[in-house]
Design goal:
By secondary structure, the chain is mainly beta. It is about 15% helix and about 60% strand. The chain is elongated.
């Protein structure tokens, strides 16, 4: 009997993200360098997460290139602070972002984020454990856009309960671009 090997959800998510990013590349029509800079928008996001005895705040300034009314892509910086009981995490890094608006008020997003995490945890004997490592995240989001502001929720398909800076794979967000 032949065995069928299925791809993991993480591999499928990465393929979808790369597909959206490539589709954006094909949809661009650059006439001049001035035209390029007229389509660049600046802004970013703010994320807040609350859980059982936990708190997370994320600040993410970014710039996107608005290829057309439907597609945008860009990059950003990230800073995160997370506190869970006696554990504290600080993380910083960068991200690649794609946005797709199938209809004007609905925004779909894919974002790959790579963070350097500095973790400090108090152990049972009262000593502190310090740990530093890299943590990837791949978010797929759904939001409601009203001109320059988008409110929504995103899901981290690479969420690792032991290593992720985020308490939960689900995270609400607010994005603003000018």
């Amino acid at each position: 009997m032949a065995h069928i090997k299925y791809s993991s959800p993480k591999k499928i998510a990465i393929c979808i993200f790369l597909g959206l990013f490539c589709a954006l590349g094909y949809s661009q029509n650059l006439n001049s360098s001035n035209d390029f800079w007229n389509k660049v928008r600046y802004g970013g996001g703010l994320g807040l997460g609350f859980g059982n005895n936990s708190f997370n705040i994320a600040l993410a300034p970014s710039a996107i290139y608005q290829a057309n009314d439907y597609f945008a892509a860009g990059m950003g910086l990230s800073f995160n602070y997370y506190k869970f009981g006696d554990a504290k995490f600080t993380a910083y890094g960068g991200s690649l972002l794609t946005l797709f608006n199938p209809v004007r008020p609905i925004q779909l997003s894919a974002e790959f984020e790579q963070l350097r995490v500095n973790r400090s945890i108090e152990s049972f004997d009262g000593s502190r454990i310090e740990d530093n490592y890299w943590s990837p995240a791949l978010f797929f989001g759904l939001g409601y856009s009203n001109q320059n502001v988008t409110f929504g929720i995103r899901y981290d398909v690479l969420h690792d309960a032991q290593k992720s800076i985020y308490a939960d794979p689900w995270m609400p967000f607010i994005r603003v671009y000018f």
